[in-house]
Write a sequence for this structure.
């Protein structure tokens, strides 16, 4: 994950992320790991292609809180252009139409987008599907309207996805990472992101 600078700041966990919620997320992650293990896979077990599996094998670890990230421009699936702008919080959500954990989290991401976009939230949902057409078809079928782009392997060389899926990152107004979650988040935890904006 490209970082322009790193601020050695200790950030307190948001009050909304209680120890009960953290324990539930950890339990969910353990269940997910067990389910994937039973399938003989890993966090990238649902990868569509050999190239996706190779990308996942080389994926970096989650960046540290406080890290400043610069998101390259990207074309959205609706044909418009996306540019990250300083001064606005940005929610980045890595997903795939074939990811069962993303399927559980995406409705909450849609609800968050609808509730918070008028407050200045910017969102970029990055699909790692095999083709942009697969991602478009899935969004249309599910009725999701959050801003989504297809993260091609070439684009991901500039902005690599951390290991795992789904991945949820929240950047503050100056591009600093204020939240980083790997794996499925519960709806109440996704909703709590709104209190960090």
């Amino acid at each position: 994950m490209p970082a322009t600078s790193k601020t050695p700041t200790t950030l307190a966990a948001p009050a909304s992320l209680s120890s009960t919620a953290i324990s539930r997320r950890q339990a969910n992650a353990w269940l997910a790991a067990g389910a994937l293990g039973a399938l003989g896979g890993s966090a990238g077990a649902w990868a569509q292609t050999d190239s996706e599996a190779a990308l996942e094998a080389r994926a970096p670890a989650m960046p540290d809180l406080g890290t400043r990230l610069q998101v390259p421009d990207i074309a959205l699936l609706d044909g418009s252009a996306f540019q990250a702008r300083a001064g606005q919080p940005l929610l980045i959500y890595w997903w795939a139409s074939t990811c069962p954990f993303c399927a559980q989290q995406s409705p909450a991401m849609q609800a968050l987008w609808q509730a918070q976009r008028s407050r200045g939230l910017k969102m970029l949902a990055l699909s790692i599907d095999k083709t942009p057409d697969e991602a478009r078809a899935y969004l249309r079928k599910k009725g999701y309207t959050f801003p989504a782009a297809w993260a091609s392997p070439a684009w991901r060389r500039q902005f690599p996805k951390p290991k795992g899926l789904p991945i949820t990152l929240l950047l503050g107004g100056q591009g600093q990472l204020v939240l980083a979650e790997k794996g499925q988040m519960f709806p109440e935890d996704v909703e709590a992101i709104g209190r960090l904006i």
Strands lie at 3-6, 67-69, 74-75, 81-82, 90-95, 122-127, 148-150, 167-171, 177-182. Residues 43-196 form a domain with the Glutaredoxin fold (CATH 3.40.30.10).
